[in-house]
Each structure stands twice: as C-alpha cells, then as structure tokens.
Design goal:
The chain is an alpha/beta fold. It contains 30 helices and 29 strands. The chain starts with 10 loop residues before the first helix and ends with a helix. It binds one RNA strand through strand 8, strand 12, helix 8, helix 11 and strand 25.
RNA sequence: AGGCCCGUAGCUCAGUUGGUUAGAGCGCUACCUUGACACGGUAGAGGUCUGGGGUUCGAGUCCCCACGGGCCUACCA
C-alpha cells in the first residue's frame, strides 16, 4: 500500500486532530492511586480575561516539556490547569464592556454586577484554556480549577478565619497606596516606581510673630493644603531657634507647629520639610510620633475635598497648578528647580498612586516569612536560577505587612461582619446572623474583597482538596515543581511558600524554576497593551505550534531573557520540516521495498525497538553501532539538560542528532542497504532505521508533540498503539558506550569531508567521479574502513578508493592529511597550486602557534607540577598529533614549492 | 540609595565547577534543481570574548576599576 505523505510539513493539517484526540481520550488524566514516583505541577493560573500571549507560550512550553518528559519516564504525573479570577483586571474589563453599552455598573448594584461578571466569565472566560488545549498541553482537564469557584472560596474563607484567629490578620487605619482610577487600595507590590522629571518648589511659610519665613521644599505643592506641621532636624543650627514656634500655612491660614525630628535630611532642599501626615508615608510616621492632625484633602477619585478649602472639587493636578499660581501671586514661591524623582504608578491604570489614609485589612507577614526563609535556606525548596535566591531572601527579610482588602466587587468578599450598633467585628466561616459580641442582628458584611493574590497564594494546596486530606492532596502535595516568571517571585511565589508552610506544614513545591521573559528586539518586555508583542496564536498557525515550542525551548537558557524573532521561528519550522521529510524518505522507500514482496510485519516486529541495533548474522554494521551510540549520547545529554532546566541544551542536542547525525549521515549512508538485493541485509537495515527513528521521535516528543505523535503512529511497529505520549522515554543505556564505533565512524566522516573539501577546492564538477587513495594509521580503524569502503566511495563521489598500507608521500594530486590519515585525489586538472600553497601556509601558521603554546606550557615546570594529570596527558597527546600534522603540511608545501 | 544581570562572529545568543586551535542558529560566499527535504545539499569565510588592571602554571570563565545597556528593591520631601 502506498502511503500518502505531503511533500512539506503542514502543521495546520495535523495539529487540530491530535489536540482533539488528547483531550477526548483524556490521555493525561492523573490517577492519585497509581504507583510510581510522582511528578506534579500546578499551572500558574492565567487571568480569565486573558488570551495566550508569548509569555504564556514560553511558560507553558517549559511546563509541558517537563510534564511529558516525566510522564514518559513512568512518573505518576499531574499537570493541573486552571484560571485566576483576577479581581482588578476582570472587573475593569467588564466595567468597560458595560460602559460601551452605556451602562454604569454602579447603578446596577453589586449583586447584579457580580451576576454579569459570572455570565461574562462563562462566555468569554475559557478562551485561554481553549487555547491551551489547541496547543496540546498535556493537562488533566478533569481537575481544572478556578480561584473563585465555590470550592476555592471555601478554602479562602477557611484560611482567612484561621489567620484572623491567630492574630495574623488585622484591620487598621493607616497610610496606604490608593489608585484614584481603580478606586481601590493597592499593595506595595502593585505600585511600580518610575523616575519622572518634576520640580522642587521652594515655598515660604511665614513664621508666626516674627516677620521671617521658613522655606520648605516639596514636589507635591497641592498636598500643603493638608499640612499639619513643618519639621526640621533637631541639630540643625539654622532652624534650632524656630522649633516650638508656629508657621502660618499659606492659602489655608492655619497655624501649624514647627517640630524637630531626626528623620529630616538636613542636606535635602532647605532642610525644612512640610508635614502632610495624610498624604505621605514619611509624614504619616512622623505625624504619629508627634501626634499631629491627619487631614485628608482628597477624594477617592483624586479630587480635592472640602478640607482643601477654596480648592475643593479640583482635580489633584489642576489643584497643583492653582496652588502654585496662588503662591506665586502672593510672592511665596522662593524658587522652582527641576528635580527628577521616583513616583508610584498603578500597574493597571498607569496613573500616579496617591498615598492616603484608610482603614484596611492587613496580614502580618514577619511570622510567616521566617519559616519561608528557612525552607529555602535549608534547601527544602530549590530556587533556579540560584541568583534569585538572594532576591527572595532580601525581600523576605525586609517584608512588610500585606494590604489584603480591595475596594472591588469581583473577588472573595472579606468574611467580616460589622455590628452597626457598637462597631463589633465578627469574622466567621459561615455568614453569621448576629454580632458575635453583643448579639445584635444589625450587622453588615464588609463590602471589600481580598487581593487576588491571596487566593493564588493557596493554589498548590487549595486545588488539591485541602483542608480535606484527599487522595490528591496525599499523592500530589507538595507539588514537585513550579515554573513561573521571575517577575512574580514576590507577588506569588513567596506568598505560596508562606501560606503553604503555614497551613500544610509542608513546602508547596520542591523547586521553583523562574523562567525568562520574552522581550522585543529593543529589549522591552513584550506586551499586548503596548502592541510590542508577537501573537503566539497567529504564529503557531503560521509556523506550527511545534516549531514555536521548539524555538522557545531552544532559546530558554536559564537566567537569560529571550528575544524572539520570526527568523528563529522559521529555523525551527525548517527543523520540523526536516524531520517530516526524513519520515517521508522512510515511507517512500518502504513502499518500494514492500512492492518487491516483503511483508511489513517482518520489518516491524514489535520487538524492533527492544533488540536494536540489529546485526547481520551477528555482525554489527559500523554505521549502526555509531548511530545507536550517538543516540545514547544524545539521550544522556537530554536527560542531564532537562534535569537542570537547560531546555536550550536539550533542544540543541536533539537538533544536532536528528539533523546532523540521523539525516546527514545515517540516512545517506544506509540508502543502498534499504534496497539491498540480499533481503536479509535489507531487513536488518530497515529494522534499525525504524527503531532509530522511533527512538528519536520519542526523544523529541516533549518538545514537538504534534509532529512526533503523527509520525509515530505511521510507523509500522506502532500500529494500533495509543499514543507516543504514553510510550517510554529513551533512557541513556546503563551499559557503557562503545567508543570505538563513535571514533571509527567519526574518522570516516573526516575522510569523506576531506574528500569533498578537496573536490570543492579543485572546483570539480559535483558529479564527476574520481579515484582516490587513502591511508589510515590505526590498523583496527583501517580494517573498519575497508569494510566501509563502498560508503566512502559513494559519499565522496569516487570512481574508486584504494586503501594503502603505507603512509603517503606528500606529492602529487590534491591531498589532505591529519595525524590519523592521508587522503589523495589523483587528479590534477583545475588545480590552482598558488591557492593551495596559500592555504597550506595559513594552516601551517595556525598549527605552529598551537604547537608553540603547548610546548611553552608543557615546558613549564610549575605547570607540570600543578596542572591535573588529565590536562597534561591531553595536551601531550594533542601536541604529538599536531606535530605530525605540521610535518605533513610542511612536507606538502615544500614539495609544491619544489615543483613550481 | 542598595542589589542583580548583561556586553563573545554582520545579527540573535550558547559557553555547568578557570584547562587542549571559543560554539550554534540566522545572514554571507562558492557550487549544486542529486529520486526525502531549496523550509534543501556540499564546501567555506568570519570573533581573541567592551576597555584597563589584578589573581593564577593557565582567564571568555575568578577579583577590582572604567564605559555602555537592562532589571529589581527602596519612605529622600
């Protein structure tokens, strides 16, 4: 039967089929009761609002590679998918959606709004998980989780109440980061710092009863409306005499005290600082120390409030202008200087964050941070790359309390109820009917929700059934590994570690691999909102998901950010095409061979894999010995690379093997064998080819799941089998490598390349067959080569090859020599001896340099006494070879010079 | 302000504990439409590893300084 196989690899034709197959067959459903070592990984839940971006593509590629790899190696494997309700993002998306329809969400009311978000989630919230299916991620979809599902909410509430009962959660009025656009408080981590060009306004505050002025410097003049003091350093001679006096706050005509506090920097500005406790973190602390008034002069949405007097109602930036103008008019601006300073930006709305006094829920972090630090110190959690450990420690050691509440409607509502009669607080798992303290039924639940990261922090155990001791929890917790971006080390990783240890007594994962970020050519982080991102979905469509995966993996060196380009994708696509065509070669030739009357079963015996490499009457072909050893070397390399998250190295090894060894040499070499009239020989060749190809496919499968699944199914030995994903992964053999195969075939490769190089230098017609002579120094190798003569003749495009028993004189024809062999093409047309001489001279120079440096080193007593034996031996061996080569080159050159 | 990372071939980047003539992909040059593959084949050119100093028998690799680029943390008004 003739097989239909397209001439070029067309991923669009095969990917959707396997993506569906994997999902429908529930191929990756985990079984908590299955035997074997466990590999479990939970997904960093993407936002429900999201769609797959290039960062996910990288992350999910890495996760899926390791997941498939472990599964194939026989681990009880769970890759648990899910999404995050993403409070602020989702609420913003839906609010905007409503606005587009002319609906103000405030008017809908909370309940109605929440219903709409759920509806929206049901309709649009599975885009990313659908995309994950279509790119073939080997998740267990039966265990998909959502951070705001009833089950997860139950866990969140349990955790909140326990923390409250333990005194780790408290409610307090203090200075927080407020976003006037999102209308919510933010945690420190959600505030980005940016250097901005601004001004330093020097404002003259009249000292009461003296006619003098005290000049303060500020970057935010509008906040002066809320000033309740001016502070100077207690030892500042310039101002000592003023401490205890008062200034008259301009524009507000309020008398405020001059205080002394050593937090003041005498060097900065004028050395006198206005104090606005309600709008600046420093001032707030100082205010509390000195029991100053805290006057909030702004509204939620960044306008001035009634406390701002004449400025009430103005936008904060407008107010700044007006304040400055008015001060100028009164002659109270002493000077204005340019000043670059960092300001806080809301990560979502990009507006300037306003520090503000507000009553919020906080989580005490220090007690939880300590065990989290210890766990990493003791190595219970491995952080990769290691240099991130220090960042982790640094942040953990300086940790500050976490602002938990958010003024949103979408999220886990805080399980706290306030007694309206006497302000008692009831925190409970189940909604209470009355105040726990006074019994009043006049209670109301806190209207805020929890920071989204609070529920994400529980993800590794909430998804596995905690607080019940479920089978999943028992088997899969702690998870084996977490793969996520280093940009959320604090947001998420650190918090999971703290929560995990606190609640389960165990670390949530044994290792964290922090992957790179994908950047644009100009070094920016790729971002959809900035329009600088490449769209992985479109690119997958164009180049193939496998190509994308392979490309990303090949670039994913730990600790290095990735700059992706279409060039690189094309190169990965070409690799996929190469494999496709290797398969095509197999099948086209198989058809021919079958046509000559061979039964497929003979070639595709089920044990084909197990017994490979096959021999012909006990005799191993050198090329087979070589190829299977190369395969073993590759499997070894891939294993050690993946064990240490060096995806790029694994990818490179496989690429090298598949293209360089398998396609360029093996296939070329065995071509005649496959149609060998000696049927027995041909069958051996076919079995080895099938076996090697299938092994290579299995090696590649975690990287390119679609292509390998497709081709694997077409191999006769896999007829009727379920999936390559459930097949075994090639393990590096226990037995030692047979180095002689590797070395002997490598020698052949060198000979063939030397022949081709000579031909190329001679500008020989590529089809012109010429006679050549070969001498090989090593007797064993010479015998091996004699048996491989036909191959050399074919690949070197020779008419005949004479293998001599003696070294060759460096005369006549065109030659190449190494320490191991001499090869000559006895053909002298077209030879430009001047070019040959130049080449020889250049090579001699290089060789002399190499030899001299080695001689110098080896002649150095200190080197000999201190360098390891291995290095010295190696150097000596190389030196000996190079001396031989040099002598040959010199002989050759002088011969040529004599001739001319 | 503190910390971290990077600067290697025209481009994008590898280079695990310092050790033998520094690698890959793309690009480039020449030749080749050969029965798997032009998304291809064959051969080749091209870096002395940003600069300077140091440690060492030996440095792309370790240390210091400078220059250039990036990131993170941070309450300098």
């Amino acid at each position: 039967m003739a097989r239909e196989i397209a001439k070029a690899y067309e991923p669009q034709q095969i990917e959707p089929r396997w993506a569906d197959f994997w999902v429908k067959e529930e191929l990756f459903k985990a079984d908590a009761n299955a035997p074997g070592p466990v590999f479990s990984i939970v997904i960093p839940p993407p936002n429900v609002t999201g769609s797959l971006h290039i960062g996910h593509m990288l992350e999910h590629t890495e996760i899926d590679i390791l997941t498939r790899w472990h599964r194939m190696r026989g681990y009880n494997t769970l890759y648990l998918p899910g999404t995050d309700h993403a409070g602020i993002s989702t609420q913003r998306v839906v609010v905007k959606h409503l606005m587009d329809q002319g609906i103000d969400y405030h008017k809908l009311g909370r309940e109605e709004f929440e219903k709409l978000v759920w509806k929206w989630k049901a309709e649009a919230g599975s885009e990313i998980t659908q995309q994950m299916r279509s790119i073939g991620e080997s998740c267990d979809w039966s265990r998909e989780r959502f951070t705001l599902s009833p089950e997860m909410s139950h866990v969140v509430r349990e955790v909140f109440v326990r923390l409250y009962e333990e005194g780790l959660i408290y409610r307090e009025k203090r200075l927080v980061n407020w976003c006037p656009v999102c209308l919510t408080v933010l945690s420190d981590l959600e505030v980005a710092h940016e250097e901005r060009q601004g001004y330093l306004w020097h404002i003259k505050y009249p000292v009461v009863g003296s006619g003098q002025f005290l000049v303060v410097a500020t970057t935010r003049p509008e906040t002066m409306l809320g000033d309740t003091a001016v502070a100077v350093h207690p030892e500042d001679e310039r101002y000592k005499h003023l401490v205890g006096k008062k200034v008259l706050l301009p524009l507000m005509n309020r008398e405020i005290p001059i205080i002394a506090d050593d937090m003041v920097d005498r060097e900065f500005g004028t050395g006198a600082v206005k104090i606005t406790p309600a709008h600046d973190p420093n001032d707030f602390e100082m205010g509390r120390r000195h029991k100053l008034l805290e006057i909030d002069v702004m509204t939620d949405d960044g306008h001035m409030n009634a406390n701002a007097g004449a400025y009430a109602g103005l936008d904060r930036f407008e107010a700044r202008k007006r304040v400055v103008e008015d001060l100028k008019a009164q002659g109270l601006i002493e000077k204005i200087s340019e000043h670059t300073h960092p300001i806080g930006i809301c990560e979502r709305s990009k507006t300037i964050v306003e520090p503000r006094i507000s009553k919020q829920w906080f989580c005490r972090m220090k007690p939880m941070a300590e065990p989290a630090i210890a766990a990493v110190e003791r190595g219970e959690i491995q952080i990769v790359p290691e240099n991130r450990r220090e960042e982790y420690f640094n942040w953990m050691r300086n940790i500050r309390d976490w602002t938990l509440s958010r003024q949103l409607w979408w999220g886990h509502r805080i399980p706290a109820w306030y007694c309206k009669e006497n302000k008692h607080v009831t925190v409970a798992r189940e909604a209470p009917t009355k105040c726990a303290t006074c019994g009043s039924t006049n209670i109301e639940q806190d209207s805020d929700v929890l920071d989204t990261w609070f529920s994400s922090g529980l993800w590794p155990f909430s998804t596995l059934g905690w607080p019940e001791n479920t089978a999943d929890f028992k088997t899969y917790y702690p998870t084996t590994l977490l793969i996520t971006g280093y940009d959320i080390l604090f947001f998420w990783v650190a918090r999971m570690v703290m929560m995990g240890i606190h609640f389960t007594g165990k670390v949530p994962f044994r290792a964290v691999y922090l992957h790179s970020l994908v950047r644009t050519g100009s070094g920016e982080k790729m971002s959809k909102s900035k329009g600088t991102g490449l769209d992985p979905v479109a690119l997958n469509q164009q180049y193939g998901t496998d190509a994308m995966r392979f490309c990303l993996a090949s670039m994913a060196a730990p600790g290095t950010d990735i700059v992706l380009s279409e060039d690189k994708l094309a190169s990965a696509r070409n690799f996929a095409n190469k494999i496709w065509n290797a398969a095509r070669f197999l099948f086209v030739n198989l058809d021919k061979f079958e046509a000559s009357g061979t039964k497929l079963e003979e070639l595709a015996a089920p044990e084909v894999r197990a017994k490979a490499p096959y021999t012909y009457r006990g005799e191993m072909a050198l090329v087979d010995g070589w190829l299977f050893n190369r395969l073993a070397v590759t499997a070894r390399g891939v294993k050690s690379a993946l064990e240490s998250y060096r995806f790029h190295e694994a990818g490179h090894d496989i690429y090298q093997f598949f293209w360089g060894d398998f396609c360029d040499w093996y296939i070329e070499w065995i071509k005649p064998e496959l149609q060998n009239p000696d049927r027995e020989r041909a069958v051996v060749a076919w079995r080895n080819l099938f076996s090697a190809f299938a092994t290579a496919l299995r090696l590649l499968h975690p990287f390119m799941p679609f292509l390998t699944e497709e081709l694997w199914h077409q191999l006769p030995q896999n007829a009727g089998a379920k999936s390559i994903a459930l097949d075994t992964y090639p393990q590096p053999g226990e037995e030692r490598l047979h180095l002689e195969y590797l070395m002997q075939f490598q020698l052949i490769q060198e000979v063939v390349v030397a022949l081709r190089t000579i031909r190329s230098d001679m500008k020989l017609d590529p089809k012109k067959r010429v006679a050549a002579e070969l001498f090989v120094w090593d007797g064993l190798a010479r015998d091996a080569i004699r048996r491989s003569q036909d191959g050399i003749v074919r690949l070197g495009i020779l008419s005949q090859l004479t293998i001599t028993e003696k070294p060759m004189a460096q005369v006549g024809g065109m030659m190449r020599s190494t320490a191991q062999f001499d090869v000559r093409i006895a053909y002298s047309d077209n030879v430009d001896m001047a070019v040959e001489k130049t080449r020889l001279k250049k090579e001699i120079e290089g060789m002399q340099r190499a030899i001299e440096s080695k001689e110098r080193q080896l002649g150095d007593e200190t080197f000999r006494s201190r360098a390891p034996e291995k290095i010295i031996k190696g150097l000596e061996a190389t030196l000996a070879e190079q001396r031989i080569e040099l002598r040959k080159l010199q002989d050759r050159l002088s011969q040529l010079e004599k001739d001319s």
